[in-house]
Amino acid sequence: MCRWAAYRGEPLYLEELVSSPAHSLIEQSHCASRAKTATNGDGFGIAWYAERPQPGLYRDVLPAWSDCNLKSIARQVRSPLFLAHVRAATGGGTRRDNCHPFVHGVWSFMHNGQIADFEHLRRPLDTMLDNDLYAARMGSTDSELIFLLALQFGLEHDPLGAMAETVAFIERLADHMERRVLVRLTAAFSNGRELYAVRYATDDAAPTLYAAPMGGEGGYCLVSEPLDDDSDAWLEIPGGSAIVLGENGVDIRLFAPAGRPAGTMERKAAAV
């Protein structure tokens, strides 16, 4: 499983999530503590927003701990909103086009999880994309396809609704094709203004997601696992939840794809 971290708030140096903390994202790339695999060495990436609407993007296939430029960039670049990811490949080769985050226009996206039987679902899922979005597909991962499908289903106008429709469509397709119906995702995505995150799994066994204040008044970070040992500082986000970080602060909502009733874990999100 991959590990990721995202931030929105007052401008913060990337190193505050990527390299400085005791359990930074670089540390998690070779010593993750809350994942099925401790090593996430199949590439990394950072997308950050600054003066222009489109995010900057830096990705490579090297393990995060061995890239000689990553720490230097993280020390120098400061941003009010950024996404960072270290990859443990579950599908798709180790190549730059398969490294997260993925970017299209002003949108950036990263993901931890999987689509079961993806090799059987990939072709019909690809056919759902219009010509422009199909041409934008550079890699071979299920993660990038989830992102492009969400754009197809209206991410720009209704981000959480588009993500719910994407997951619902994948589940319906798997059922129709008599394949295993299982989508697991903890994803973060942004348009440069708001930061969104979703934690969901068909079987209620979603990858982990935590949140904590950071970077002064109004700043918040979302992570696959805490960046330090201060357990009281980190809130575990329940499965079946969506988060919106914007100018009005933190908004936690239920997340259930269309046609699927909220499960036990999803109902817990209402109490957060």
Give an account of the 3D structure.
With 272 residues, this protein is α+β, with helices and mostly antiparallel strands. It has one domain (3-271): Aminohydrolase, N-terminal nucleophile (Ntn) domain (Glutamine Phosphoribosylpyrophosphate, subunit 1, domain 1), CATH 3.60.20. It is 25% helix and 29% strand. The longest helix is centred in the middle third of the chain and has 18 residues, at 159-176. The protein is globular and about 50 Å long.
Features:
272 residues; seven-stranded antiparallel sheet; six-stranded antiparallel sheet; Glutamine Phosphoribosylpyrophosphate, subunit 1, domain 1; globular; 13 strands; alpha+beta; disordered C terminus
Tell how many strands the DSSP assignment holds: 13
- SS content category: alpha+beta
Task: Please estimate the helix content.
Answer: 10-25%
- The main sheet orders its strands as 3-2-4-1-10-9-11
* CATH-derived topology: Glutamine Phosphoribosylpyrophosphate, subunit 1, domain 1
Using the 3D structure, state the CATH architecture.
4-Layer Sandwich
The CATH class is identified as: Alpha Beta
Q: What is the number of helices?
A: 8
First-residue to last-residue Cα separation: 26 Å
Shape: globular
**Which series of helices and strands comes N to C?**
EHHEEHEEEHHHHEEEEEEEH
Mean pLDDT: 88
What does the main sheet amount to? 7 strands, antiparallel
What is the gist of this entry?
This protein has eight helices and 13 strands. It is an alpha+beta fold and 272 residues long. The protein has a single domain (3-271), classed as Aminohydrolase, N-terminal nucleophile (Ntn) domain (Glutamine Phosphoribosylpyrophosphate, subunit 1, domain 1).
